[in-house]
Predict the 3D structure of the following.
Amino acid sequence: MSVNTVVLRGRKVVGGVAEGEALVTRQTISGWGGINPMAGTITETRHELRGVSFKDKILVFPGAKGSSGWSAVFHMTRLAGTAPKAMLFTEMTTKVALGAVVMRVPSVTDFDKNPLELIETGDWVKVDADRGIVEVRKAALRTGS
Amino acid sequence: MKLTTEEQALLDGRGGKARQKAMELLVRYGEALGAESLVATDNIAGVPGSSNPFLQKYYQQHGGGGYDAIFSFFDLDSDELVEVPKASAHTCHLQGGYDPDNWEMLGATPENFRISQESEAFIADRGVKILKTCTPYLAGNVPKLGDHCAWMESSAVVYCNSVLGARTNTEGRESTSAAMLTGKIPDWGFHRVENRRGSHLIEVDLDIESVMDWGMLGYFVGEVVGERIPVLRGRFKADLIRHKHFGAAAASSGGVEMYHIVGITPEAPTMEAAFGASKPAEILRYGTQERRRTYDNLNSKAKDRDVDYVMLGCPHYSLEQIQNACALLDGKKVGPNTQLWVFTSRAVKAAADAQGLTKRLRDAGAVLVTDTCSSIAQAVPPGTKVAALDSAKQTHYLPAIMNIQAWFGTTQDCINAAISGRWNGVRP
């Protein structure tokens, strides 16, 4: 395996396989009042990803916060065709679990290593949620490596 | 997950197709959580079957646009159209849709209003109680200590766990609709006593009295503890209304689903009871500086002092709060360039009607509105640029949703702004 590939192991939340470009935030995400499901963008006023689209990305984030409308709003992203391709998160809540289930996107949690530290926006990520394996190909070689 | 014989029978389809689909969803959800079993619940608060033009149009093109279709495909996340039977557990409908008396004022189109009425009738036929409020506990649904519930609405969830001592996670639309047909929910999180103990100690140095004081304290606590369980210690005068504002704020700035106040809330008679065997992960203080910082955060979107719109009733106002608003108006009228809308439940409005409060508000130029709020309905009076609010939760959401400025202050500050059209709230 190449030096700029990282492998993480975790627990399946929702099964399936997907690959794509990572979108990473260290901030939790609100569903209702925090995203625009029709556009697939984050809208929360003070969020570091405000205005950024998660459509077709591998969304890497700590988890869900805010209103109990989380699952229903993310459910709508599936209907609108703006859902992320997969979700990797570190804090399990009922909001994010139910959201992942109804979005029907491969999702993994309970990692052996911290995905928020090892994955950066722009990395290419392969998610095999059934086996709980996440392969990360780094976007750029780090200086000196 | 381990299922009981009864649960397995539902999963096998012996309770009919809809209950089978509901059980399938609960199993997928329980496995996603890592839950080992389901728990029985007979108190569900959700938004079953509620619809909007987007869902109607989408399902017209994908399997059918009727209310059975929306419930099947969206509420139950089923790929098959099923006929929706009666609820098999006590279920109420939370806020949503439009006030039947004020839908035009809220800017609903006749089509939107028709859809909201039809989805309400559909779900009422299934035995669901149409409470249409974020405060079911002020409209007759008061679970008792230890009851397992499946509630949506973060401000109701935190009230249910903390003030009533009943047990619920923050459920979503799909899980509550599945619970309505099965009387089951994953046995995870707050259903288990070991997950209900405090994690952070908040030492409160100030006297916390007004609704505004409680709102700011809640907003501060949510920001510092996130999803954890705060235990508060200090000098408090808490009534149910203040708990309502505190919890709603803490659930908005953070994800607080449960808190303890030593000597006040039912699962925290003592510090030892509040924390169980563990020690506080952190000890935080709330004093003058923290209060000032919280006030500034809440008012960071406010600049212009000419107020167009005053909104009260987040969470929905109690009868006592409506009485208080009338008393503060004191016979004066809402100013010519200002609107005052007060939101409450249908049950509380019926009581307000009966004792003349609705009329007193109307005579002052204000409107008592049910079913929704400005954030949920995305409805403010036309041309609103600046709002004034007494709710930290509404202040958190409304400026982002409607792209307006919002002042946060006392109920008195808000009523004064409604009368004079000017914001004169004072930074604490």
About this structure: Chain B has 17 helices and 15 strands. The domain at 299-420 of chain B is CATH 3.30.499.10 (Aconitase; domain 3). The longest helix of chain B spans residues 17-33.
